[in-house]
Amino acid sequence: MVSEKKKVSVLAGFKAFLMRGNVVDLAVAVVIGAAFTNIVNSVVKGLISPVIGLVGTQSLDAYKSCIKDPCGVGADGKPTGVELLWGSVLNAALTFLITAAVVYFLMVLPMSKYLARQEARRKAKEGVQETMEITELEVLKEIRDALVAQRGAGGGQVQSDSPGPRL
User: Fold this and answer.
1) What Rg do the C-alpha atoms of the chain give, in angstroms?
2) How far from 133 is each of 99, 129, 137, CA to CA, in Å?
3) What SS3 class is residue 163?
4) Hey, how many other C-beta atoms are within 10 angstroms of the C-beta on 102?
């Protein structure tokens, strides 16, 4: 019986963990990130690599330096020497920069502008409400002053049976 309750509470806890907002947001971010990776890889292969190919080779992976001779493939089919594959690193860096630019310019910047507009509208609305409240307060003060002046001109004060405040 204890084991069954423990299973139920573990499953309930797991369900609560999965339903948290930040876990769902993270899952959505991973899916969108995977989609952007495909887009960015296509941009690199279809646009960036051919432009770089005008100067050298289309594949950045072909750029490498040999730091221990002889570099190549030996008679037994095993690589010889030590190569620095700096073209692969450059390709990864370009992919990262393009991904960051796409995310910033297509998602972060428009969203921050949208949120700034929403905040400005909210502040403008609050400013209008404050102005209305101040104007309403001033009208009430004017009414009070007019009533006080009217009582003073009437020659006497009006007596009230109610214990409330007097104007």
Assistant:
1) 37
2) 49, 6, 6
3) coil
4) 14
CA 9 to chain centre: 34
Position 3 scores a pLDDT of 60
Read off the pTM. Answer: 0.47
CA–CA gap between residue 19 and residue 12 (Å, rounded): 11
Looking at this protein, which amino acid is placed at residue 150? Q
Average pLDDT over the chain, rounded to an integer: 77
Distance CA 12, CA 80 (A): 57
- Residue 112 identity (one-letter amino acid): S
Q: 68: closest CA among 57, 76, 59, 79?
A: 79
Number of CB atoms found within 10 A of residue 38's CB: 9
Mean pLDDT of 152-160: 59
pLDDT at 144: 92
Task: Show Cβ contacts of residue 16 under 8 Å, excluding neighbours closer than 6 positions.
Answer: none
